[in-house]
UniProtKB/TrEMBL annotation:
<keyword id="KW-0472">Membrane</keyword>
<feature type="domain" description="DUF6535">
    <location>
        <begin position="4"/>
        <end position="157"/>
    </location>
</feature>
<feature type="transmembrane region" description="Helical">
    <location>
        <begin position="26"/>
        <end position="46"/>
    </location>
</feature>
<feature type="transmembrane region" description="Helical">
    <location>
        <begin position="91"/>
        <end position="114"/>
    </location>
</feature>
<keyword id="KW-0812">Transmembrane</keyword>
<dbReference type="Pfam" id="PF20153">
    <property type="entry name" value="DUF6535"/>
</dbReference>
<keyword id="KW-1133">Transmembrane helix</keyword>
<protein>
    <recommendedName>
        <fullName>DUF6535 domain-containing protein</fullName>
    </recommendedName>
</protein>
<dbReference type="InterPro" id="IPR045338">
    <property type="entry name" value="DUF6535"/>
</dbReference>
């Protein structure tokens, strides 16, 4: 019985240290992911209009067409309204911005999943004999080690 009490105390110290360290890393990651996503979204909203035609240009072309029709000019509407095509640099920049936003959100989802994993690893509220608690704790720790939770969390950013 003394063995299991001592084991429980040492395992509890180890587990608290592990979860506090990893939870702290995940909290910082979530804050930076949120800030980066907000800034990235702002850039996307600024560059998004470059991917569509300017409405005032289209209005001016239509007015020009009306004036020419009034003068009985024989130009067709296709002569006045050139097809719109976005600048290749604008397309590239928006692709990169959306890719970085996707990566940031993916890291945030991964961090939340890792926090849930750490929450399930916590032994708060466990009842029963110390020996059974120790076996359950060891099974959870083996799962954390088998799935390389620490490496996954370090890979997230």
């Amino acid at each position: 019985s003394d063995f299991w009490k001592r084991y429980d105390r040492l395992a509890d110290i180890h587990d608290k240290k592990l979860t506090m360290n990893l939870n702290g890393n995940l909290d910082v990651l979530l804050i930076f992911a949120a800030l980066f996503s907000a800034i990235n979204t702002t850039f996307i909203s600024i560059t998004m209009p470059n991917l569509s035609p300017n409405p005032s240009d289209e209005t001016n072309n239509l007015l020009r067409l009306l004036v020419m029709r009034a003068d009985n000019n024989t130009l067709t509407p296709t002569d006045l309204l050139p097809p719109f095509s976005a600048d290749s640099n604008s397309i590239l920049v928006n692709c990169l911005l959306y890719a970085s936003l996707s990566c940031s959100l993916l890291a945030a989802v991964g961090a939340m999943m890792a926090k849930e994993w750490l929450q399930s690893f916590d032994r708060t509220g466990q009842t029963g004999p110390l020996e059974e608690q120790a076996l359950l704790r060891q099974r959870k720790l083996n799962g954390v080690q088998d799935w390389h939770l620490e490496a996954v969390i370090k890979f997230l950013p």
